[in-house]
């Protein structure tokens, strides 16, 4: 999520995916929902559907491979749904919540002050959990994206506060790590993925930096040396152990692939393709292909722009990864 006006300067299954065979699916999935501006997308193999959020309406919907959109879940506490992830272990759909001032429910008491996650049963749509993270830190807050580990812990980035939260398997939240490396202008921490070797990969939208967060024996933040920084780096999806697909916006509007041969101390950057329409914000894999969500939020922020209700899940070509 990186969508306030000052930020226009330029989620999926969380565990590592292996695509086999690659590039067998639909080149683009177009769907329609009235001015929803979905910021994130996640695939559920069990439901055989994509789940998408909404920055403007704070809802969650389902999108079929044929592009049919159906409303799925809503709640009065959902000002704007950012990162969406499917929790296969619990069969829940989680959303990171933040109010950046573009929601139909935005107010001075919530804008820039909201950080929470919410979960719904992926079959019934019944609300299962709401976890407020705002009391854990002071100042501006914006829960952006989330990831799970095999034990059921949930990790959440905050784009305004320089922290990563963790919610344990008993749903007790705390600040996992606070770092000066996470500070910056406008939107900062963004996409997050849990690596099967037991660490986190996190991107920073404002500067295009990426971090490797060790969880054991103690929590440590290490900068990943990239062949090129990626300002505007938004949603990410881990493919295998050595490949990370990134949606990059901020005027660049493309999908890129990071590959690492040394356990994410360093990574090489390769462009996978430009977005077909504006402002890509998320990527997800359905087990065969990787799709990038182009959410058009630039047209929502620009008061002179015509508002849109058509959005695209664009397939991107991903190279082989172990």
TrEMBL record:
Q: Give the matching SUPFAM superfamilies.
A: Calcium-dependent phosphotriesterase
The protein's matches in InterPro entries, at most eight in alphabetical order, are given as: 6-blade_b-propeller_TolB-like (IPR011042), Sensory_adhesion_molecule (IPR053224)
Q: What is the name attached to this protein's record?
A: Gluconolaconase
């Amino acid at each position: 999520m990186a969508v306030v006006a000052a930020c226009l300067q330029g989620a999926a299954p969380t565990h590592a995916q292996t695509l086999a065979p690659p590039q067998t699916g639909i080149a683009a999935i177009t769907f329609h929902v009235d001015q929803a501006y979905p910021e994130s997308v996640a695939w559920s193999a069990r439901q055989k559907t994509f789940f998408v959020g909404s920055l403007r309406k704070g809802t969650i919907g389902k999108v079929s491979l044929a592009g049919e959109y159906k409303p799925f879940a809503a709640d009065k506490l959902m000002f704007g749904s950012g990162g969406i992830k499917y929790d296969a272990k619990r069969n829940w759909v989680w959303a990171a919540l933040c109010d950046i001032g573009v929601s139909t429910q935005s107010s001075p008491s919530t804008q820039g002050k909201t950080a929470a996650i919410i979960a719904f049963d992926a079959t019934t749509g019944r609300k299962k959990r709401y976890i407020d993270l705002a009391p854990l830190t002071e100042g501006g807050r914006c829960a952006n994206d989330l990831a799970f580990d095999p034990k059921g812990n949930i990790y959440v980035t905050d784009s305004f506060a320089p922290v990563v939260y963790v919610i344990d398997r008993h749903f007790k939240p705390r600040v996992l790590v606070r770092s000066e490396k996470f500070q910056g202008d406008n939107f900062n921490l963004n996409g997050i993925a849990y690596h099967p070797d037991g660490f986190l990969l996190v991107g920073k939208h404002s500067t295009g930096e990426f971090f490797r967060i060790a969880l054991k024996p103690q929590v440590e933040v290490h900068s990943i040396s990239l062949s090129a920084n990626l300002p505007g780096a938004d949603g990410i999806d881990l493919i295998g152990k050595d490949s990370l697909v990134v949606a990059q916006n901020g005027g660049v509007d493309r999908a890129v692939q990071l590959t690492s041969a040394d356990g994410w101390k360093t990574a090489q950057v390769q462009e996978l393709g430009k977005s077909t329409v504006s402002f890509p914000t998320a990527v997800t894999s359905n087990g065969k292909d990787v799709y990038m969500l182009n959410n058009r939020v630039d047209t929502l922020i620009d008061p002179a722009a015509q508002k849109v209700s058509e959005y695209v899940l664009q397939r991107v070509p991903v190279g082989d990864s172990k």
